[in-house]
Each structure stands twice: as C-alpha cells, then as structure tokens.
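Q: Given only this backbone (210 positions), what sequence would you predict?
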C-alpha cells in the first residue's frame, strides 16, 4: 500500500497510473491554500515543499514523472513504461522517451501558462492577462497541430500502446477543459480521439482516502 501526499483536486494523473497498474494506495490530502506543503513535517519528506510525494513503506519519492516511472517499475508486467529492463526494443524505449519529452517541453509549458493566468482572479492575484493567454494558446495550437500529425499515424504519442507519456498530460489538459479551453483538445479529429481515450480512463473510487 502506497501513501500519496497530494491535493485532492490534483490527484487524477497519479490515480489513473495506479488504476492502470492495479496498485492500491491511500491518498493523504494536502491543503495548498493553508500551506500544508510548507510545514516542517512535509518539508522533511520533500525539501522543495511541492506536490506530490510518495511514501512506499518508508521509501520517499517526489516529482510526478519519477513517481510514475517508479510505480510502473514496481508493476513489472506493465507496458506503460518501456525501458531497457522491460524487454522493450531500443526503438520502443526511444519513442517513449521522445513522447515524454513532447509532453514536458511542448505541451505543459503553454497549458500551465494558460491555467495560471485563468485562475489569477480566483486566487486573488489580479486580473487574467488576456494577451499572455492568447500568446500561450497560439503557441499551443501550433504544438497540437504537430500532435495531430503524429496521432494520424498511431493511437498514442509513443505508438499504438498507452504509456505514461500520455497519462502525464492529464493534469494540465484537464485544467484546460475546466477553464474554458477544452476546444483545443477537440477541434482536431486525431487529437480528440486520443484525448477521449486518455481523458476517459477510469480512476474515480480506485483509492481510499485517509
């Protein structure tokens, strides 16, 4: 049983990974508004004071992508994480790492910018900068045009099998949907098919909450 310390509202990607791997875990909710992630008890686990953090029977791990890779390694039969020790070919490993870099470098930065601007009023940080949102959206449109070309040839970003690289899109993609930018993921037919598959994965109710 794993303990995952993360905000309740931002647990989806980790929950999907765990559900896909058949791994049971307990969520320990953190209240970011109350700065629980900055308290000494949490900083002793994660010195950056960020989320999420995983506690696997005393083995502490932070950073989302590291946690995803670790969970997939623990479930040794999983195909979510092609790596040299999994029996995957060099091509499959390289394509996975390429897809992981695409998510991290091409998708997340613009999606994160849009989200952070959109939530400024709610968080009392001032007004949304429409120009910043527009520039990030235009940049992301170009990136998603490239996604459309990739996904015209295969089901998922690394090939025809679901991998962590697809699942890592979930938090920021869901933020786009929740804040009025979901059309970015639906106006391109191949991107829409991919997002329908990834965003529709079951995860609710597959963990117990402390």
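A: Predicted residues:
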């Amino acid at each position: 049983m794993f303990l995952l310390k993360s905000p309740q509202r931002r647990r989806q990607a980790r929950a999907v990974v765990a559900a896909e791997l058949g791994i049971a875990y307990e969520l320990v909710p953190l209240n970011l508004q109350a700065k629980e992630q900055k308290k000494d008890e949490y900083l002793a686990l994660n010195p950056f004071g960020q989320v999420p953090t995983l506690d696997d029977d005393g083995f502490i791990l932070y950073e989302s992508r590291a946690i995803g890779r670790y969970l997939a390694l623990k479930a040794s039969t999983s195909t979510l994480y092609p790596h040299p020790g999994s029996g995957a070919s060099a091509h499959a490993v390289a394509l996975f790492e390429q897809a992981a870099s695409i998510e991290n470098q091409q998708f997340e930065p613009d999606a994160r910018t849009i989200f952070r601007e959109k939530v400024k009023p709610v968080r009392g940080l001032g007004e949304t900068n429409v120009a910043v949102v527009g520039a990030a959206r235009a940049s992301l449109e170009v990136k998603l045009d490239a996604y459309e070309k990739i996904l015209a040839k295969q089901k998922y970003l690394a090939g025809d099998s679901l991998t962590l690289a697809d699942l890592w899109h979930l938090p920021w993609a869901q933020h786009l949907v929740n804040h009025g930018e979901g059309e970015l993921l639906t106006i391109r037919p191949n991107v829409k098919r991919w997002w329908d598959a990834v965003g529709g994965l079951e995860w609710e109710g597959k963990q117990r909450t402390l």
